[in-house]
Design brief:
The protein has helices at 6-41, 43-46, 50-80, 84-102, 105-115, 117-137, 144-179, 188-204. By secondary structure, it is mainly alpha-helical.
């Protein structure tokens, strides 16, 4: 097992920092124009207090920052992998691709939802809060303060609903994983050992160089 050198750790930190900056800039590139647009076109948005407008921007920038920073860090890690580790990753990717191609449309949708459950949870929560906020803000018989309080109550209720749904989804995935545990035993360590032994044997085989033909008079 190779330990990371100080240079590799510094490069990893640099890549992660680069991803964080990209995520922040990307989130601001989307959230700031959207905020300015609603500020000009929506009287309900103009009536919101500044801290709620700032919270909306943070809710966009925060996930972009975290996701892109992690992506850049993982990307750098993969670029440093060599030898048997790379071969094992390629083998696992081929196995996963074959498994994905063997699924039907319903199974692919279920598999995608299982691998992206947190994105679905966050997206459904944000969409629900946006729809509820839009409906509440259209009520002309309430003041802005009353609308904000009602929108916050909707957000709290939707958050509880999303957490319950996430718990049900996680529990079903754990049950399915336990049922198929015997089919998903990780033997990657054995494959890596075999590949390392094969590479070591290949490195010990002497290379034969063609001998030059004797010169004829």
């Amino acid at each position: 097992m190779k330990l990371a050198t100080p240079e590799e750790l510094a490069a990893h930190q640099k890549a992660t920092l680069r991803g964080a900056i990209e995520g922040i800039l990307g989130g601001l590139a989307f959230s700031l124009p959207a905020s300015f647009y609603f500020q000009r076109t929506s009287p309900y948005y103009r009536a919101l207090p500044p801290h709620l407008k700032a919270l909306g921007i943070i809710m966009v920038v925060g996930p972009c920052y975290a996701i892109q920073a992690e992506r850049r860090g993982v990307q750098y890690d993969k670029s440093t992998w060599t030898g048997a580790g790379v071969l094992e990753l390629q083998r696992e990717e081929n196995v996963e691709l074959s498994r994905w191609n063997s699924l039907d449309s319903r199974e692919k949708l279920k598999d995608w939802a299982a691998r992206n459950q947190y994105k679905l949870i966050l997206g459904s929560w944000a969409a629900s809060v946006a729809v509820a906020g839009t409906i509440v803000m259209r009520n002309r018989h309430q003041t802005v303060a009353q609308k904000v309080v009602q929108a916050r109550m909707w957000a709290q209720g939707l958050t509880i609903g999303v957490l319950i749904g996430a718990g049900v989804l996680t529990q079903s995935q754990r049950a399915e994983s336990a049922a198929n545990h015997h089919q998903r035993v990780d033997h990657s360590w054995a494959n890596i050992i075999q590949e390392e032994e094969e590479a070591e044997r290949q490195s010990k085989v002497p290379r034969l160089t063609p001998s030059k033909a004797p010169a004829t008079a």
